[in-house]
Amino acid sequence: MLGLRRNPDYVPKKIDFTVSTNTELPATFDSRTQWPSCVHPIRDQGQCGSCWAFAASEVLSDRFCIASNGAVNVVLSPQDLVSCDKSDYGCEGGYLDRSWDYLVGYGIVTEDCLPYSSGKGRVAACPKSGTCKTGTWKKYRAHDYTEFTGIEEIKTSLVNQGPVETGFDVYDDFMNYSSGVYVKTSNQLLGGHAVKVVGWGVENGEEHWIVANSWGTTWGEKGFFRIRFGECNFESDMIAGTPLLSSPKNLQ
């Protein structure tokens, strides 16, 4: 149910939590209400450590729709990353930056073209270029990506470009989350997990992130959860790419 990999010498980035008093950023923000037709539904990775592929593909899917004003409204294939990104490890996990390197260098097809098939832990071979189960074969690529280092930078990207991806530390009490703003109460670390951040809010004077998980709609708040700012190194791996709306013909 997890799957985020980190280098052995991983040290969480120091995040600047300062938000400029001159900014016009709202007190709360939710991509789901800002772009209701572009923030795509909750998905389920199943018994495969493919969170890294789901979070990256979902962020790029949403951002294509937002950047194109709804003209490019597709659900992109996490299976493309799981089966074809050889710099990562399929159901055995993946690295956030490597997955975005793949999205920039190669891109991914749509879910219709290559449906998710690894929910039981089996990774199918990467299909031959140009083959689709249904629909037209086309690679959707990111132009570039950014690894964020400050809260204002993260919020600005969310407001202007849409959801972002992050990786965070998961402790065993998180598995029992059902609702509310999560604050860690356990010291039993289970591993790392990648998710899609859709916005932020304020409760009892404290800010929290609004997050889409990939464990289906029966978990948490219909598949979503909220987590207090600063918990579990949540901000240390924030990352997102800019969709490439037009590509050279040889890369389509």
Describe what you observe in this structure.
There is one protein chain. With 252 residues, the chain is α+β, with helices and mostly antiparallel strands. It has a single domain (29-242), classed as Cysteine proteinases (Cathepsin B, Chain A, Alpha-Beta Complex). Helix content is 19%, strand content 20%. The protein has helices at 31-34, 51-67, 78-84, 96-105, 151-161, and strands spanning 29-30, 142-147, 164-171, 181-182, 189-203, 206-212, 224-228, 239-243. The strands form two sheets. Strands 1, 3, 4, 5, 6 and 7 form a six-stranded mixed β-sheet that branches. A two-stranded antiparallel sheet has the order 2-8. A hairpin with a 2-residue loop joins strand 5 and strand 6. Helix 2 packs across helix 3. The longest helix is centred in the N-terminal third of the chain and has 17 residues, at 51-67. It is globular and about 50 Å long. It starts with 28 loop residues before the first strand and ends in a 9-residue tail after the last strand. Residues 248-252 have low confidence and may be disordered.
